[in-house]
Amino acid sequence: LGADVKCQSAAQDALLVNVVESLDDYTYKAYMTSMSPSLKSHLKIDGSLPSICFETSTGIRIADSYADLLDGEIDHPINIDEHGNPVMGIAWTNANAHGDQVSPLET
Questions:
Q1: What are residue 81's phi and psi, to 5 degrees?
Q2: How many Cα atoms sit within 13 Å of 3 on the Cβ side?
């Protein structure tokens, strides 16, 4: 939950607009797994949420749907921050391209 709060806070500070109100009060969630077995469970992807697209903070399309996000190939790399600034390096999400947890994290 801490990562989701940081993500939502960064989005609000950057004045990004909330589009979906039904993701546990967080439109912006951290793309990562920790104690959950997969991104699907972390993002609560169970088919009950509306089909929405995923975009960068500058409006570049990343994926057309949850299924597209987790199909192993995104439309555009996630390589900018919430302000549209380029980001270099690697982000460790503990998830593979299909959203499955790579390794269990120790508590």
A1: -90, -175
A2: 11
The answer for 29, left when phi > 0, alpha when psi is -120 to 50, beta otherwise, is: beta
**Can you tell me whether residue 72 is helix, strand or coil?**
coil
The span from the first CA to the last CA of the chain, in angstroms, equals: 15
| C-alpha span between 106 and 48 (Å, rounded) | 31
Q: Could you give the dihedral angle defined by the CA atoms of residues 10, 16, 21 and 27, in that order, rounded to the nearest 10 degrees? A: -40
Digit-by-digit pLDDT tens for the chain (107 residues) are: 588 888 888 888 888 866 544 445 557 777 777 766 677 676 666 555 556 788 888 889 998 887 888 888 889 988 888 899 998 877 777 777 777 777 765 54
Q: Say what the pTM is.
A: 0.67
